[in-house]
Amino acid sequence: MKRLFIRLWFRLNTFFNFNLNKKVRPYHLLLNQLQKHRAVDMRNTLNEQIESYMSKSNNKERFVLVEIGSYLGESLDLWGDILEKKLDNNFLIISIDPFTAYVSESDKNWRPDKSKAPIKSGAAFKMSKVIEKIYMYFIHNISLKKWRDKHIHLRMKSREAINFIKSYNIKIDFCYIDGSHYYEDFKFDLENYSQFLSSENEYKGIICGDDYETSCDELLEKFEKKDLDKILNANKTTDCLIYDTFIFHPGITLAMSETKVKIKKFTSGFFVGSK
Prior knowledge:
Layout: H1 2-19, H2 36-56, E1 63-68, H3 74-87, E2 91-96, H4 105-108, E3 119-120, H5 123-128, H6 131-143, E4 151-154, H7 158-167, E5 174-177, H8 183-193, E6 206-209, H9 216-219, H10 225-234, E7 241-243, E8 246-248, H11 250-258, E9 262-265, E10 271-274
Parallel strand pairs: 1-2, 1-5, 2-4, 5-6
Antiparallel strand pairs: 3-7, 6-10, 7-8, 9-10
């Protein structure tokens, strides 16, 4: 009964704030994706990159931030407020998210089977059922920001959006990946968008992202190598797995074990890469 009351409160609160043209916080739609300890790593990394840009870059025309995967705009809110404070109007944010259900057959057939280990989380399946509503709230919240005229949203897949980046010869100062967690999609984003990072003598753009909770080396403490290989390769199109007391995204873990991009992993699941 208590849980039902809480969910009802969240729905009513969202409804009234939306109609009063205030920021909405729809926790019943899996809001709260931006955990506090991860937000600290994200905030510090962007601040450090801005400092590097201001002190080392010869191109002061504008700082370009690209975000792949926006969902309800929590991370975009964080980026925009920092950029506005640090750079005034000298920045451009490009967010990329098709806001369409991308659930694979593996996630579509999700069932909470605790008899198997690791088990699927079911998060992607739940998100896909309310994706149009999520897009509506995303646009609503961004429209309330002072920096909204410094923002472009591309409602398309990252594989399509990269043509936009190419055609305008955009050099990216900060690229954040939090889109599809499936192996082929994540690998494409990491390896292809890193090719468009700014690169000068002393100044380099960075690529970073979310949901790299557990590396292959860390998983080898839990599984035999042959079992781990089987799990990762069998779940390339599974969003997230839960094992014992931890979760991991198999597609990201596998792609990270293969990439040539230099990766720094944080305990929060945040990561930073460079060419």
